[in-house]
Amino acid sequence: MNKYKAAIADLxxxxxxxxxxxxxxxxxxWGGWAIMLPSLVLFAFFIWVPLIENISYSFFEIKRFERxxxxxxxxYSRVFQDPAFGKAVLNTFLYAFWSIVIxxxxxxFLGLLLSETVHFKGFFxxxxxxxxxxxxxxxxxxxxxxxxxSSGSMINGFLSLFxxxxxxxxxxxxxxxxxxxxxxxxxxxxGTVLIYLSALQTVDSTLYEVAKLDGAGxxxxxxxxxxxxxxxxxxxxxxxxxxxxxxxxxxxxxxxxGGPDNASISLMYLCYKYTFIDRDPGAGAAVGVMLALIIxxxxxxxFALSRRTKQ
Amino acid sequence: xxxxxCLSRSAAITAGVILGFVALAELGVIVYxxxxxxxxxxxxxxxxxxxxxxxxxxxxRYRLRYKREGLITxxxxxxxxxxxxxxxxxxxxFAAVLTAVIPVLWLFLAxxxxxxxxxxxxxxxxxxxxxxxxxxxxxxxxxxGKYFLNTLILVLGSIVCAVFFNGLLAYAVSILKPKGHKIxxxxxxxxxxxxxxxxxVPLYANINKLGLKGYATFIPLCLLYGANSYYFMMFKNYFDxxxxxxxxxxxxxxxxxxxxxxxxxxxxxxxxxxxVSIFAMTAAWADFLLPYLLLQDQNLYTVMVVIYNLRxxxxxxxDFGIDKYLIxxxxxxxxxxxxxxxxxxxxxxxxxTSGIKG
Lengths: 311, 358
Hints:
The complex is a heterodimer.
Chain A (H helix, E strand, L loop, with lengths): L1 H9 L7 H40 L2 E4 L2 E5 L3 H8 L1 H34 L4 H9 L6 H11 L7 H8 L14 H25 L4 H9 L4 H12 L1 H15 L4 H7 L10 H11 L3 H30 L1
Antiparallel strand pairs in A: 1-2
Chain B lengths: L9 H26 L5 H9 L30 H31 L22 H10 L1 H33 L4 H10 L9 H10 L8 H6 L5 H11 L4 H9 L4 H12 L1 H17 L2 H6 L8 H11 L8 H29 L8
């Protein structure tokens, strides 16, 4: 009996008073917080604090990146009065439209084809993925040379095969956005195709068998079996596509400098231009706040959808 | 096609012949698939009698006939119009691969032309000769050695930060779970999608306020990778699968929190450490905007900053034309292709690339 008594005496005491409870709380949790602390400092410094500070910056007059005096909505009204801002908002819709037409449908189509092939599959996957590995800045530098307006550039050499005259797509306000979206798609499609491919491989083959027994043709099978089966993936990638449209940046910065006549300016580039070219960080912060709000709203939608997908 | 096949010298001709062979072989396969008659029954007998399992490698020519999964199966491929459809599918995919590869190929070849020939009117794909001395010359003139070293420092620092800080945070949130870890998790998820560039102004101002000089400027650029929600999520999802019993047993053996992390959790999660390292490596290599804004001293430039600036400074450089510029861009792409070749399985295997992102 004594043995057990000693063992019971050795057990930690159940805390009863507030002081004891507090001590136990600290003892149990300080280790975890100590480990989190360095990373939390980094998250605060690089993400959370700038995000909050950005809002305050947008309400201040800023000189040399220091907040001077509170000016209310002056930065915002300056941005709203700038014709470039209206243009950038309009362009965002154009970017979104074209990236849905080109950047969203093309990978879906290619993924569908790729999942059906039984020959050269690895080669196709690899080949399509190659543009994905090149850094964004190198891609736009490369394409601005390929698309250059001189009659001996690759795009014009290609068009001359069909007898079309030399074009200067990057200085043509009608064509510049579709062309930029094409370049983005060229770079990104391979990765998206892989995501679709892995989703398509989970589609149950017996569903196809059943559909076939019902006399469904190929297109009817795609419409009634394939697409509904991968609808969650399609929805997520659609939203990701829209979110990434708001972040179009390197392309207008390097290929067109937002031109011609602001025809390709994007919100992200406008934020950069206000801050570092026009030396007006207040306006830049105002655009940044609006961008963060839009992307924040879209990403809430994204998480709501992805949660439903998991269930 | 005439423009593409404007071949002149031997190097170009050999390359052209290879491409021609590929095209011919491709055409042959397509014609074969469309026109072939029933194969002699004897040769297929093995395939008929053996039950095919998933992962069985079927010989090339029987693959279509024994396709049992997916939208269209082997039975339908007996009909000629389905064979035609399959040929069209292959053609479209070949075209897609060509579209993906040809611009890169052009970049690698165009630099070997003379400066005035790069954009000369009838477009030609192949250069007259491929003189590798030109690459060495560009390397020396631009002084790539120094910039590659800078980039290497940045990349190594970023990998260490990405694994160490995100890993520790995920370890605390996923395994230690101190009171309040859910708040931390919520905060990280809330800022998951919003790009750092949206709050560019205060970010730039705050880093500048640190007043760092010389190579110390690299410190915030590396630490930035220590605060990455995406890497954090990858770590957390992986740590969630580690059985608690392993951690408990290490605890009973008297291991402290850090000891558990370094001797139990990290060794168990080698695959995810590898994936995060590779992602951080490629991202840090390609990073442009913040290095461009923060690195004022030319001796500190990274490779991406150099090629961007080269575009405007090459006008003032003697004997540095568009051809050499294209070679410079190609030089910066080569390591990326090499890295991809080495880590291809890890990069493509995760499939976690997030669509189009600049």
